[in-house]
Write a structure and sequence with these properties.
single chain, mainly alpha, two-stranded antiparallel sheet, 65% helix
C-alpha cells in the first residue's frame, strides 16, 4: 500500500454540497422515505400470513427497534455531521474494514430497495390505468425473469418493466438538478400521501368492529412464523421494511443548515410521526374486514373498498399509494448517491462518485450511476430475490450503529455530544437485541444471499478499496 493511499482525502470548495435543508425539510425527508410499500402493501401480507390482528404488536416491536437505533443514530449524527449515515459512523468507530462492510450492505437498503419499490409502484400504476379503462401491455410491465429463489429462475416472456424504469429515470433527473428542488418535490409527495393515510384513519375508525380483531393473537398452526408469538416476531421482521428510511435523514448531513441540531430532530421527529400513523393504519386495516383476506397487492384500498359508504376513498388511496411509493424510490436514490459520495471522498470508491456539479452543487455523476444501477435491477430482476435483502442489510447497519455508540462511550468519553442517547447502556444493547431478533426471523435463503452479496463486496474492497481508502479521519472525537 502506498503512502499516498494513507493521506486524508482532499476536500475542496468544488466538492462541497450546498446546505439548504432545515428541520422541517429533514422531517419531510424521513417521512418521505418511511411511508411507502411497508404500510400500503406489506402490512396486509404480514397480517394475513403471520400475525393476524396482532400485526399491531409487530408494528410496535419494529418501531421499538427503530427507536433504539434512532436514538443512537441521533447521537452519531450530532457528533459527526457528515453524509454517509451508518457507513460514516462505522468508519469513525470501527475502522476501514467495518466501514466498507456496512457501506456495502447499505447498498441493499437504498439502491436495491429503490428498485424493488419502483416495481411495486409499477403494479399500482398499471392497476390505476386499468381503472381508467386503459390496459398497459403486460410485456412492458413485468421483469423478463421471475422466481422465488436462485433455483427456479425462469423467463416470463416480458421485455422489461417500463413504468419502473421511467419512474427511476424521472426521479434521477430531479436529483441531479438540485437538492432544494428535490426537497420541495419530496415535501409535496409527503403531504399527499400523509393526507391519504390520515383520511384512511379518520374515515376508517368508525367502521372498525371488535369481531374482526378476535382472536387478537391467532393460535400457532404448528410451524415457526404461522401465527402465535412466533408469527408476531416473523411479522415484525417483515413489517420492519415499513420503517426503513428514517436514517436517510443522517445521509443529508452535509446539506443540512445546522446538522448538529437539526439531524436529531429530523430522525426522531419523522420516526415518531410515522409510528403513530402506522398504529392507526394497522387498527383500521385489520378492524374493518377479515384479516385473512388481506394478502393482496393493495390491502388498504381493498379493505376500505368493501365498505359501501367509503367507495369514494378507493381512488384517492391508490393515488396516495403511488405517490408514497414514488417518494420512497426518490429518497432511496438520494440516500444511495450520498453514501457513494462519502465513500468516494474517503477513497473506497473512484472519484467519479464524489464529483459535484458546478452549477447544481449535487454529486451528479454518482447520482446518474446510481439511477442506472437501480434501473437495471428494476427492469430485469424479480422482487423475491431482492426484497428480503433490503431488510437484513438495514438491520445489520442498525446493529453496527448501536454497537458503535457503546464503543465511543469507552474510547471517546469526553467527545462533544450535542445530542446524547439517553440511558445508552440500555438503549444500545436493546437495539442490538431487537434488531438481531428481527434478523433471525427472516428466511434462511436471505442469509445465503447476504453471504453472496458480502463476498462480492469483499472482492471490490480487496481489489480497490483497501489500496485507496484513508484511515479514519475522526480522531477529533476524543476532543471535548
Amino acid at each position: 500500500m502506498s503512502d499516498a493511499s494513507l493521506e486524508q482525502p482532499i476536500v475542496t470548495e468544488d466538492n462541497h454540497l450546498k446546505r439548504t435543508l432545515g428541520p422541517v425539510s429533514l422531517i419531510m425527508l424521513g417521512i418521505g422515505s418511511i411511508i411507502g410499500a411497508g404500510i400500503f402493501v406489506i402490512a396486509g401480507t404480514a397480517a394475513a400470513e403471520h400475525a393476524g390482528p396482532a400485526v399491531l404488536v409487530s408494528f410496535i416491536i419494529a418501531g421499538l427497534g427503530c427507536l433504539f437505533a434512532g436514538l443512537c443514530y441521533a447521537e452519531f449524527a450530532s457528533m459527526i455531521p457528515e453524509s454517509g449515515s451508518a457507513y460514516t459512523y462505522a468508519y469513525a468507530t470501527m475502522g476501514r474494514f467495518m466501514a466498507w462492510f456496512i457501506g456495502w450492505n447499505m447498498v441493499l437498503e437504498y439502491l436495491v430497495s429503490s428498485s424493488t419499490v419502483a416495481v411495486g409502484w409499477s403494479g399500482y400504476f398499471v392497476s390505476f390505468l386499468q381503472n381508467l379503462g386503459y390496459k398497459f401491455p403486460a410485456e412492458f410491465a413485468n421483469a423478463p425473469v421471475a422466481g422465488t429463489g436462485f433455483h427456479d429462475l425462469h423467463l416470463t416472456g416480458a421485455f422489461l418493466n417500463l413504468p419502473a424504469v421511467l419512474l427511476i429515470l424521472f426521479l434521477t433527473v430531479f436529483l441531479v438538478v438540485g437538492v432544494s428542488e428535490s426537497a420541495r418535490f419530496n415535501a409535496l409527495m409527503v403531504m399527499i400521501k400523509t393526507s391519504i393515510v390520515i383520511l384512511v384513519i379518520i374515515f376508517g375508525l368508525p367502521y372498525v368492529h371488535a369481531s374482526n380483531l378476535h382472536p387478537f393473537i391467532p393460535p400457532n398452526e404448528g410451524s415457526f412464523g404461522k401465527f402465535g408469538i412466533t408469527g408476531i416476531l416473523a411479522a415484525s421482521g417483515m413489517i420492519f421494511f415499513a420503517y426503513i428510511g428514517f436514517e436517510a435523514v443522517s445521509v443529508a448531513a452535509q446539506e443540512a443548515k445546522n446538522p448538529r441540531r437539526d439531524l436529531p430532530i429530523g430522525i426522531l421527529g419523522s420516526l415518531a410521526i410515522c409510528t403513530l400513523l402506522y398504529i392507526g393504519m394497522a387498527i383500521v386495516l385489520t378492524g374493518v374486514t377479515n384479516w385473512r383476506t388481506l394478502d393482496v397487492p393493495n390491502p388498504v384500498s381493498f379493505a376500505l373498498g368493501k365498505i359501501a359508504a367509503l367507495q369514494w376513498i378507493v381512488m384517492p388511496i391508490n393515488i396516495g399509494a403511488m405517490v408514497g411509493l414514488a417518494s420512497v424510490v426518490f429518497v432511496g436514490l438520494y440516500g444511495q448517491s450520498r453514501i457513494f459520495y462519502s465513500m468516494a471522498r474517503d477513497g473506497f470508491l473512484p472519484p467519479v462518485f464524489s464529483a459535484v456539479h458546478k452549477r447544481f452543487r449535487t454529486p451528479h455523476r454518482g447520482t446518474i450511476i446510481t439511477g442506472i444501477g437501480a434501473i437495471l435491477f428494476a427492469a430485469v430482476l424479480p422482487l423475491d430475490i431482492l426484497a428480503d435483502l433490503v431488510s437484513i442489510g438495514t438491520l445489520l447497519a442498525f446493529v453496527a450503529v448501536c454497537g458503535g455508540i457503546l464503543i465511543l462511550r469507552r474510547t471517546a468519553p469526553k467527545a462533544r455530544r450535542p445530542f446524547r442517547t439517553p440511558f445508552a447502556w440500555f438503549v444500545a444493547p436493546a437495539g442490538i437485541v431487537t434488531c438481531g431478533l428481527m434478523m433471525f426471523s427472516l428466511a434462511d435463503g436471505t442469509w445465503v444471499r447476504l453471504v453472496l452479496w458480502t463476498a462480492i463486496g469483499l472482492l471490490i474492497y480487496f481489489v480497490y478499496g483497501i489500496w485507496h481508502a484513508a484511515p479514519s479521519k475522526w480522531k477529533v472525537l476524543n476532543e471535548p
